[in-house]
């Protein structure tokens, strides 16, 4: 069977049954559904959750899929301890899509005046959100000059029966496509698919070149050709095994107030002037499952963690071949802070690695460089290295007035540092030991004495 959301959930039940829970009680999609996830988080539990009975909707909701490294590994058929390298292999395997004439996602077609977004179980997550938001919808659009497809997740606020206010990052490919159409006063056709195999959704956060069709990338990450079908009302191909597809257009040069919205830094993204999407047609599978990403929480952050770590690893490795590993910890929202371990061959190399890291991703705000004996997936080790291996006046450097993100709550305007915008100071800590100078040795029990020790032989149950 081709892969889709249903196949993944069945595999999750079979292989990781402790990582999925079912909620049979009726829940309100406004606050109550995310409240269940928030209570689980309070108990340090992050299972995927299926809500079978959602108020005012005929469709169940699955959420919190991405908030576990084990589930990310399952989605990618990868080793949890080697996720970055396994992911890079998949991303590099471009697979041509397969176009179908008929598709499960078009088993039901709703168009014209019958389109009503309120029939979908769209969730309101945070207390001051401007309304319900589609958080897992993957937008599909074509470059008007090349026909190359781009896919990406962007926040979409419900504004009436058939409209969204939709915020795209200023640096995104989608923003460039919309700008190209705006310049010719033409609408941008866009399809939003909701609910598919997690590997398809993860593709939306890749950082491949603009001349690479992301449906081909999706096939590589999925491990098989993505099946597509022609949309019903616009000239766009859409995933055939998605649960829902919303077909629409972005009117040229039209902006509306949108927001606030609980964003990936776990603060509210402020109200902004954003694009409009007019939905013309909704198609969905029989017994469709709505996928929600739990915004402003770990599910939101982990949905882009591995892809961004892969970009960081690749781009730093160009400058520093001795890179061992990288990590974007949840404490830095899996975007703003990166840890990089490396084999240091000569002094000054740590700062080169830091500079490469800071330019690897526009959102990267802080880089911490450590030696290759430090496990960057263990924050205690990273900060132990910082506190024991640095002379701060030499280890720390800063790059002011750098682009970071409009959603960084501490970002400022070049005109007024008290006004929120997209600039901030990037900074780094080189916590590597000097080369050729004696340094105290790390104290530990001999590895051979404990690494393969079986505690059951020593400790009574």
Characterise this structure.
The protein has 461 residues and is an alpha+beta fold. It has two domains: 69-297, Electron Transport, Fmn-binding Protein, Chain A (Pnp Oxidase, Chain A), CATH 2.30.110; 305-430, UbiD C-terminal domain-like. It contains 13 helices and 24 strands. The strands form five sheets. Strands 5, 6, 7, 8, 9, 10, 11, 14, 15 and 18 form a ten-stranded antiparallel β-sheet that branches. A hairpin with a 5-residue loop joins strand 16 (261-262) and strand 17 (268-269). Helix 4 (83-92) packs across helix 7, helix 4 packs across helix 9 (305-319) and helix 9 (305-319) packs across helix 10 (349-360). It is globular and about 75 Å long. The mean pLDDT is 95.
Task: Give a quick account of the main beta sheet: strands, pairing sense, barrel closure.
Answer: 10 strands, antiparallel
**Over the alpha carbons, how many angstroms does the gyration radius reach?**
23 Å
Looking at this structure, what is the CATH superfamily of the largest domain? Answer: Electron Transport, Fmn-binding Protein, Chain A
CATH architecture of the largest domain: Roll
What's the rounded overall pLDDT mean? 95
Overall, the morphology is: globular
CATH topology of the largest domain: Pnp Oxidase, Chain A
What proportion of the residues form beta strands (DSSP E)? 25-35%
**Fraction of residues in H or I helices:** 25-40%
Structural class: alpha+beta
